[in-house]
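Running log. JK asked me to keep both predictions on one page so they can be read side by side. First protein, sequence followed by its tokens:
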Amino acid sequence: MLSRREFLAGLASLGAVSALDVIDVLHPFAAHALAASPGEATTLARTIRSMGAGPYFRLAYGEGEPYEVREDLARGDAKRTTRRRSVVFFAHLTDIHLIDSESPLRGEFLDQTSDPPSPAPFNSAWRPHEPLTLHVLESMVRQVNRSMFSPVTGTHLDFVLVTGDAADNAQFNEIRWFVDTLDGLRVAADSGLRGTYEGIQRMDYPNPLYWHPDDPSRDRYGLQHGFPAYPGLLEAAIRSFDTEGLRVPWFSVTGNHDILWQGNIPDSGPAAPPFAAIAVSPVKPEGGATADPDRRIVTTKEWVAEHFNSRAFPGPVGHGFTQENRDAGTGYYVRDLGPQLRLIVLDSVNPNGYANGSFDPGQIAWLEQQLIASHSRYRGSDGAWVTTPNRDRVLILTAHHTLYSTDNPLVATGTLSPEPRVLGGDVTTLLLRFPNVILYIGGHTHENRLIPHSSPDGGFWEVGTASHIDWPQQSRLVEILDNRDGTLSAFLTVLDHLAVPGSTD
């Protein structure tokens, strides 16, 4: 069996890396800084900062932020910057939360009972900017398209990874907006009576607990928080527009909001029939709306199927999901990104309900087999080394939930998943037995966060990325570099969307 350094030396003769034909080395790795010429799209060049300290404040550009070296898991050779090469370069988008703000199934009334708004879990049931979520996604897509070359090495972007909660309310129309926007089609964040905004922010529904952009002088957002007036904003928000579409392949992951009503309620059980009926009805708890069959709630199987109803370019067909996923209604799969790099996608949504995640035992058994298949040597459950004839591959794992948010043990009789759930701590223990695992990428918590999970054999980094729905509305560029000294570097560069701070266009 080759040592890690012998394996690394063997790779040196394979030549340059091309898009999706990636070459990698084994673990451990660390994220290191490297002098670069960053583009304006990333926070290396400039950041977006708040202006003022009031309850409502405007944004402006601020100074950029350099890379910070993290050597929690490994230390590299000081000469690595002169010989390293790119392995893979991709973008990570998560928690887009496309919202049909006119839907009868919105839960705005759950988040208006106090000031400040209601405590968890109801403090995200409504946000003042809900009609604009589709425009935020388009702005991020355009920024990704302007970030085609790595700020570190100049390598071309290989693909985009979207780790769930593309929709907000598990509605068919929200999912179609997501796929159509990434495909570059014409879209509109409109439902019910087309061309007429029917949500709770319209002026003929003068509830003072919601922001009315046409005239906020009588609501709490204007009177108490200083929200400005933007006449015509709602009409502009639902107007159709042409999208640019991603220019590289993209892969999708299932999130709790993609298949659970409000990210919490499953499509089975006693609550399912009335919620499903409300979604397509004109009966809205506040204000009323025109019925629309495209607001129907989807199952996991239907969510997966919509990824096959997508343009062939840039692809791939199914956007990671396989025909087996489509037939069985499962959300986990494996994708080889080259001879040495493998992406393992997990489905962390608990179909029994509640927002946080967990895994079914069958999926974890499948995961362990995938891990074994990518290792010539790993540790068994007793800690002893196990040798296999398998070919080594470097592994990136991803799911919607971070490992620290996979703490949902809920099991309900008669639901899709009656067996006990596997939580994040057990998955972490499993992954630490396999030294080729280098990254675990997730979302869900709407925050940028890096967590090292160490072991005597190296360990792996857990990467959480911010959402599009909450501040700071960011995505991330991820590049893995071969340092040719037995380590890898992961450059994790934060990406703001394209919209100019302070603009009212």
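And the second, directly underneath as requested:
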Amino acid sequence: MGYLCGDWEFTEKCSELFLQGKKVDDVITVDLPHTVKELPLQYADEREYQMISGYRKLLTINREPGMRYILHFEGAAHIAEVFASGTKIAEHRCGYTAFDADITDHIGEDGQCLVAVRLDSTENPSIPPFGFVVDYLTFGGIYRPVELLEVPEISIRDVFVSTPDTAAVYTEVYITGTGERLRDCSCSVDILDAEGNPVVSDIPALFDDDPGLSQEHVSKLTPMLPDPVSPGFRVIRMSCEAHVENAKLWSCETPYLYTLRARLFVKPREREEHEFTARFGIRMMEFRADGFYLNGSRCFIRGLNRHQNYPYIGYAASPSLQRADAHILKNELHVNAVRTSHYPQSQDFISACDELGLLVFTEIPGWQHLGEAPEWKEQAVENV
């Protein structure tokens, strides 16, 4: 439906009254991306941004029957608890990866829903990268955009695209919905060139690798996993492989991007229920004894590390600033690779790298430390 970046209420001292929508003192209005504390250019003290703060925004939604309403947070540092109309609906324990929260069941008859976030930006030793020395500042805040998604009850949650060779495009489509209705869905995949023209059309995605099985039989064999976002919903995977003839390969010099379009259909009327798109490059990468090879040709990697922080605003950089860093790396510093030290970074930055021809080595949050607590290790695996 659109981004929700304007007119959030913010407090440096989150309380139950604030989360419940009551009037409290010391509340200001802010826009996202936002940092919990602006810091001086020099001699910054990391204790200044370590706090338990609060954000809230009253939404008014013109709710449509059969639709779900999902909040997509691109980044909130570092432990975020999300409340909808006073009820906790999600918790995310990583300041560098995106997450979703389903507010559908908490929208009132008047279409209103109070969204509140309790945000812990302290250095918590139970989550990466904390627990020992960290050689960079870990600013707090809802520092990337928040988006409200309107999707059908049966919808595509995500897709994963890989290119096992320079002609094949392997796609996994993850579909969410209620268990019984998931058995009535089908999916097809199209691939569009950079101009939007189809080069591959209507490749069916199947529940299983054996095309000889009927869809009804296969769906009973395919495991359904609980949906971590929408209570009572399940997630199921479909997959397919397409072949692009005379494919234009992505390289650092010619970063050609295709668009994959997955379309979801639901019986009995076989109408299109949902559409999901993702851009990708067809490329093969391999490390050999004598170096790195891209699309079969040896490629000398010249790269730099990149942090996502800026003077004064910490992590709270706009999408345009994120993309500007990619342009500086490519066009001013003339490198062909970047390492996202030491955590996953903004999708705006990653997309700009893809468009400009920058190889990306991304990392999980961490810096020369492995936490001893089981929850630390579990979160590290989840981050991967």
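Observation for JK regarding the second prediction: Residues 212-221 have pLDDT under 50 and may be disordered.
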